[in-house]
Write a structure and sequence with these properties.
Layout (H helix, E strand, L loop, with lengths): L4 H13 L3 H10 L12 H17 L5 H11 L3 H17 L3 H11 L6 H17 L3 H12 L7 H14 L3 H11 L9 H11 L3 H14 L5 H14 L3 H13 L6 H13 L3 H9 L7 H16 L3 H12 L5 H17 L3 H14 L6 H14 L3 H10 L5 H20 L3 H13 L7 H14 L3 H13 L9 H14 L3 H11 L9 H16 L3 H14 L4 H14 L3 H14 L6 H14 L3 H12 L8 H14 L3 H14 L4 H16 L3 H10 L8 H15 L3 H14 L6 H14 L3 H12 L7 H15 L3 H14 L3 H17 L3 H13 L5 H17 L3 H13 L4 H16 L3 H14 L4 H17 L3 H14 L3 H21 L5
Helix pairs in contact: 1-2, 2-3, 3-4, 3-5, 4-5, 5-6, 6-7, 7-8, 8-9, 9-10, 10-11, 11-12, 11-13, 12-13, 13-14, 13-15, 14-15, 15-16, 15-17, 16-17, 17-18, 18-19, 18-52, 19-20, 20-21, 22-23, 23-24, 24-25, 25-26, 25-27, 26-27, 27-28, 27-29, 28-29, 29-30, 30-31, 31-32, 32-33, 33-34, 34-35, ...
């Protein structure tokens, strides 16, 4: 190496100027050695060496070079070297992409000490740094200077960036000019075409934009290939060339993770416009949920696409979404109408009714108003929602003949619902209306049948006979309405009127003879035929029937055996009679007639004055708590037997039991004479007086007591109930424990009940019921139970009285009502396990009505469901549905759907839920709950579109607050799931 420092300095500078920094750097570094200090004493040269060393280090990316350069700029005084160092330091930062610091030092560098190339580089790099930092205004002026010098090395690049900034500023003409300069350049030929095509589009030169874009795409390797396809798709869409548009939009969307809503809409519309409706549906489905025109129009077109592909249910929900959007009033109106129309066509009669009514009220001038009204009439004609149908019909200001023709059917449907729900009074009123209105020919026989049934239940026997005969003149058959049941009911009515021949004729229409597998009605009618023969003293025919029933050993055989014994007694064959009755007790120890048989045996022995033989049978009755209703009679008979056997102490014991435990019974009064005779025979008159006083029966009743009561009773018998009520009240106030206390309470209750004041009647009936048994106890307990249930809604109290009634009832019909009432109380109190036994008893009762059987099966089903025996529960619910239409069957159908859902049988659950909506429109709670269940099913199936529509409908329209709130919560969950799964850029 040449040791001449001057020569070395010169050589190093040549390296530097030739950009050979790795060669220059060690030479410059060497010149800083101490031995060269005397030769290179000039401070300027030493400063230059330092400058070159730092610049070389910047170029060589040596560690700490930037800090040295910063220090140099800050501390050195040579302006030219400081400006040059600032330039090199700025370039260093530029290469490091530290554009902020680069700009700081470019500004310090200035241009006075830079070469032309360096000046060009500085300006371009400054412009690029501003551009990268999105300071487009500062960048634009610098690019503008460079882009105008064609000889500048950065001429092409400057035009590109200048064009981009102008494009960003929407200065499309200038941008196009700049982009045109660079469009053929190898660097930009695959980038710029997109911007040029966009500029033509924004300038409204759509044909040129399309031509240019397609040519660019055809040339291949375009950086903006997807945006070009998007643009071409838009251009063809605007030209209504939907087939071509779909080709490009489809390619764009399929390759884009989160396409815009507008792009998805255009592609879906393209499919729709060319008749590819099924393919348009997925895109339109994703565009709902916002309150804008795109969402509303998408739902409108989606609905039409569903209609064109035969998917009415989905179309209905799409119309719902469109109708809840207020941007386009016309589309809203049309969608509301179509939503109502499709609701009707699909069997959503409750919603159809509501929406049609709203539509008619809100759009009285709509071009669809006439069709809406016609559909509303059709809803009335075809719906099972008789309750709302009746209200709507009666609210019509004018009624056409066509609507009048539907009226009897509505009346009958609603009457049957009321019957099944135990509202017989209201049902009877509607059935009466059927008899009075025109166009009633079809419903008339049904009305006659049910009016006969209601009249019999209410004890109006003459009316029952009248209506049953009217039905049988022109009979029709539908479920429980049939000739067999009519003859059966008529037979019982005639039997109560003691018209035995006529009753026999009707019972024989049901069962003149029976096989060994009769229905309960056939068996009972056959036995009643025997009773008719019996009452007509045609014992031979009666015996034939009773013997056949006994031989079959079927239900009723115990009764037949009892009747056979009575006939033997009629023939004075007392030994045979007693033998038959004894066999009844032995064969059927749990029979309702076992106690009657023992009592009749005792009576037979007593009639022949064989009092000692009678006593064991009477004592047997006292061992049976089920016979408590006849214990007063038994105690009286036992007293009479022992009295006649001269066992006065035993007799007095029996009579004392009677008087002390049953002081208000007729038998108690009858026993007094025997008691008097016993005491008198024993010469104990004072003891008799004390006995009577002790048992609340003083020997001398107050004359005032008797006169006060008789005064009130005379008014009652004369029909002067106001005076009678005043008299009874006065009597009870004066004689709270009077001789006629039971009678006064009873008739007071009857007056209040006749005056339709059951609340006041209750206390007086309760007073009579508390002193059971007595001749008014059975009816009083029955009325207490009815009032507690229907008027007080106190089901616990009602249950207590129904339970009491069941134990004291002497008539089978009353006992059946007691069982029925008790069951209803247990149902209301949700005492499923306690109610099961009672329910099973009712299901076995031959006289149980369909509504009784419905509730009984409901209780059995609910008990199964509570025990998670879902299959058994579903079977029991099916039994409810088979028995007819009522709120019970509405709930039963819902429960079946619910069980299927729990068993994950979703298609079957959906079908079952729809059954509730279509068939049980009168029962709003179960219909609304079924909609919620449908939403749950759709959600579980991940059908978010229909789940959202279903919950949205309930949330906006439900009238039951609890279900409305449940729908709101579930709607929020579905919408959250929908937003999470959406791929569209919202």
């Amino acid at each position: 190496m040449n040791n001449d420092p001057t020569a070395q300095f010169k050589q190093a500078k040549e390296y530097f100027q030739n950009n050979e920094y790795s060669l220059a750097y060690p030479v410059f570094k060497n010149l800083q050695q101490p031995e060269y200090g005397t030769t290179l004493m000039d401070a300027t040269i030493r400063e230059q060496i330092k400058f070159y060393i730092i610049v070389c280090e910047l170029h060589l990316k040596n560690e700490g070079a930037a800090n040295k350069a910063i220090e140099f700029v800050s501390l050195e005084t040579n302006a030219s070297l400081v400006q040059m160092m600032s330039f090199y330091l700025a370039e260093y930062f530029f290469e490091q992409k530290n554009y902020t610091d680069a700009l700081t030092y470019y500004q310090k560098a200035g241009i006075d000490n830079l070469s032309n190339n360096q000046i060009s580089t500085l300006k371009f790099h400054m412009a690029y740094a501003y551009f990268t930092l999105q300071k487009f205004k500062e960048a634009k002026s610098l690019f503008d200077v460079i882009r105008q010098i064609k000889t500048d090395l950065n001429y092409i690049d400057a035009n590109y960036y200048y064009g981009f900034i102008c494009f960003y500023d929407k200065n499309y003409a200038t941008a196009l000019q700049a982009f045109t300069i660079v469009e053929k350049d190898r660097t930009y030929k695959n980038i710029v075409p997109f911007y040029i095509a966009e500029i033509y589009y924004f300038q409204g030169n759509y044909d040129k934009s399309l031509l240019y874009a397609e040519a660019a795409l055809l040339s291949g390797n375009q950086y903006y290939e997807l945006p070009l396809k998007q643009l071409i798709g838009h251009l063809y869409f605007d030209k209504k060339n939907y087939a071509r548009a779909s080709h490009y939009l489809e390619a764009y969307i399929n390759a884009t993770p989160t396409p815009n809503r507008e792009d998805v809409y255009e592609l879906s519309y393209c499919y729709y416009a060319v008749g590819n409706y099924q393919q348009s549906i997925p895109g339109f489905k994703q565009l709902g949920g916002k309150e804008d025109s795109l969402a509303q129009n998408s739902m409108y077109l989606l609905a039409d696409a569903y209609l064109k592909t035969g998917q009415k249910a989905n179309a209905r929900n799409a119309f719902l979404f469109c109708a809840t959007n207020n941007v386009n009033p016309t589309q809203k109106q049309v969608s509301l109408f179509n939503y109502a129309k499709l609701s009707y066509e699909l069997g959503y009669f409750d919603i159809a009714q509501r929406e049609l009514e709203n539509f008619i009220n809100n759009y009285p001038s709509s071009p669809y108003i006439q069709e809406a009204k016609e559909i509303e009439v059709s809803v009335l004609a075809n719906t099972s929602n008789y309750k709302d149908a009746l209200l709507l019909f009666e609210s019509l200001p004018a009624r056409s003949e066509s609507v009048k023709k539907i009226y009897p059917r509505i009346l009958y449907g609603r009457a049957v619902e009321l019957l099944n729900d135990q509202h017989t009074h209201e049902a009877d009123a509607l059935l009466t209306r059927i008899l009075q209105v025109p166009y009633n020919e079809t419903q008339l026989p049904y009305a006659y049948f049910w009016k006969g049934e209601i009249a019999y239940r209410n004890g109006n026997i003459d009316q029952a006979i009248q209506y049953d005969n009217a039905y049988l003149k022109n009979p029709v058959v539908l479920g429980e309405v049939n000739q067999v049941n009519a003859h059966y009911n008529l037979g019982y009515a005639l039997l109560k009127k003691e018209l035995y021949n006529e009753a026999l004729a009707n019972f024989q229409q049901v069962a003149k003879n029976i096989s060994y597998n009769p229905t309960p009605i056939q068996l009972d009618a056959y036995i009643r035929s025997g009773d008719c023969y019996f009452m007509n003293r045609n014992y031979k025919q009666a015996l034939f029937i009773y013997d056949k029933v006994i031989d079959m050993n079927t239900r009723g055989a115990d009764y037949a055996l009892y009747q056979k014994a009575i006939i033997a007694g009629a023939y004075n064959k007392n030994s045979e009679k007693i033998s038959l009755l004894q066999s009844l007790v032995k064969q059927y120890p749990h029979s309702d007639f076992a106690n009657e048989a023992n009592f009749e045996i005792a009576n037979t022995y007593m009639a022949s004055e064989n009092f000692s033989a009678a006593i064991p049978y009477l004592q047997s009755i006292l061992q049976n708590n089920d016979a408590a209703a006849i214990w007063p009679k038994v105690f009286l008979k036992l007293g009479v037997c022992t009295f006649n056997l001269n066992e006065n102490n035993q007799a007095l014991q029996q009579f004392t039991q009677l008087v002390s435990h049953y002081p208000n019974s007729p038998e108690s009064d009858e026993a007094i004479e025997y008691i008097r005779n016993i005491f008198l025979e024993n010469h104990q008159p004072d003891a008799f007086v004390a006995f009577m006083k002790q048992n609340g029966k003083p020997v001398s009743y107050s004359e005032e007591d008797s006169l006060t009561f008789r005064s009130a009773q005379l008014a009652y018998n004369a029909g002067n109930f106001t005076s009678a009520l005043k008299g009874y009240t006065n009597y009870l106030a004066k004689f709270s424990d009077g001789q006629y206390n039971i009678e006064a309470n009873y008739f007071t209750a009857e007056i209040y009940l006749a005056n339709k004041d059951p609340q006041k009647a209750f206390a007086y009936y309760a007073a009579v019921a508390a002193k059971a048994p007595n001749i008014y106890a059975e009816r009083s307990v029955l009325q207490c139970a009815r009032i507690a249930y229907f008027d007080k809604k106190n089901y616990t109290t009602a249950a207590t009285y129904y339970q009491q009634l069941k134990s004291i009832a002497t008539q089978q019909e009353t006992k059946l009502e007691a069982m029925r009432g008790l069951l209803r109380c247990q149902y209301k109190l949700q005492q499923w396990k306690d109610a099961v036994a009672n329910a099973q008893d009712i299901l076995e009762e031959k006289g149980a009505a369909e509504d009784d059987r419905m509730m009984a099966n409901m209780i059995v089903a609910k008990n199964f469901q509570a025990d998670s025996a879902l299959t058994d529960a579903a079977n029991a619910y099916q039994q409810v549905i088979k028995l007819g239409k009522s709120e019970f069957s509405a709930e039963a159908q819902y429960r079946i759907a619910q069980i299927l859902y729990l068993q994950n049988q979703l298609p079957a659950a959906e079908k079952a839920a729809f059954e509730v909506i279509k068939k049980y429109g009168s029962y709003d709670y179960w219909v609304t709950d079924s909609y919620l269940l449908l939403g749950d099913i759709y959600f579980k199936e991940n059908d978010l579109f229909n789940a959202e529509a279903t919950f949205k409908s309930v949330a906006e329209n439900a009238t039951i607050e609890a279900l409305k709130n449940e729908a709101v919560q579930k709607l929020a969950l579905v919408q959250a799931a929908k937003n999470k799964s959406s791929k569209i850029n919202q």
